[in-house]
Design a protein that fits this description.
single chain, three-stranded antiparallel beta sheet, 19 helices, binds phenylalanine
Length: 490
Amino acid sequence: MSRAEEALLEFLQSNEEIPDSHQFATDSGFLHSELENVIKSLHGFQLVVAQDVKRENWVLTEEGAAYASSGSPEARLLEQVPSEGISTEELKRKLGDGVFKIGSAQARKNGWIDIGKLGVTRKVEHIEDRVKDLLNKIKIGEAVSDGDVADLKKRKLIDRQTWKGYSLKKGPNYTLRRKKVVTDLTRDILLRGDWKDLEFKEYNLNAGARPIEYGCDHPLLKVREQFQNIFLQMGFAEMPTNKFVESSFWNFDALFQPQQHPARDSHDTFFLRAPSVTRQLPEEYVEKVKNVHESGGFGSKGYGYDWKRQEANKNVLRTHTTAVSSRMLYLLAQEPFSPKKYFSIDRVFRNEAVDRTHLAEFHQIEGLICDRGLTLGDLKGVLRCFFARLGISKLRFKPAYNPYTEPSMEIFSYHDGLKKWVEIGNSGMFRPEMLLPMGLPEDVSVIAWGLSLERPTMILYGIDNIRDLFGHKVDLNLIKENPVCRLGMA
Ligand code: PHE
């Protein structure tokens, strides 16, 4: 129990009321702020009943405080006027211009002095420095008349101050000494037997509990899981995507993307400084890729340029997950052929200017099927089937170009909200120039498609700036509070 609390409770034992906590603080030598905490606590436990009181009082201005200690200018002036009088110059010199100016005006007003040609003469023997006395009364909180207050206020010697305090009375639980309530039953309390006399704090069953920390999936992960489920339900197996760093060879060359292609420029692709080149590539296959780029084969003319190994060796941050597909298809070609359905969903990187809808990294969703005798009709059928599971049934296809697919099609869907067709993906049939050097049988076709994970996630969660979804500006509450993804559940 603090001293302030003790003093307060003691006072109320023999007094009906504390009318003003400020006064009580001054009288008992406590800071009001200290008392205020005690009051709030005592009020909370109903040992006292506290009521807000607003109090106005007067405090001395700087000038007022100076007069209160060294006297008013008029009194100080009169002190310096001898019975025979004094010249104004002499008086000014003694008092200083400021005190002289105020003092002479006030003293004349009071009828204490005369100012004539010969100087200043006094008209009274004794005076009382009322201004000084009044100021000192106000300083210690004594009451002064309204008229005096008005005069002092006019001379800017006092100022009004309002403050909030409390009036206090005993409350229903008043006692002189507050018993400390115990919050925990400890071993010591049991051993000492104190528990018999102690007062225990009641449980507050209405108290809010601290929110439980919990982990939660990012919206991208939720949507990714739904896409994974759709692929798995359709019988697709997931490809290993654990390689953000890829050689240009698998990212571009194996995909029959020529080495002068603008996408292989550092403005579009992130190249690695260290390690800048890949350590190993399957030499026999590299030779075949080189040949198909330079002079074609398998019914193709090729690109007719000088293919450079150093260019293929360069490490990049993979620009699309099709790099994963090219590795996978190559591996597949090393075994006796069997049809496969594969998918991947992972991060890719492009050296792009960042804006509302673009980041330098995003996630791609990619699916592919390889089998004998697949046609463009199969691709369209699979896409309709895949997108139907996302709840997207209106699809259109538009001829497009990719270095590694022929034919290629952009996929559009009708957006009911925007009332227009929007591009949702890209697709095609991998070229023979890509598949045959790998060693896949000639009658095997591969149909494939890709889309971003961010686009559908932003649409599903109503996020219109990609920086609110991914990166350092993301509000963690968005991640904690967003709803489950209902994609594919309809
Ligand atoms: N790789 C393409 C892209 O990055 C997508 C795609 C995948 C296109 C498979 C055709 C076939 O946009």
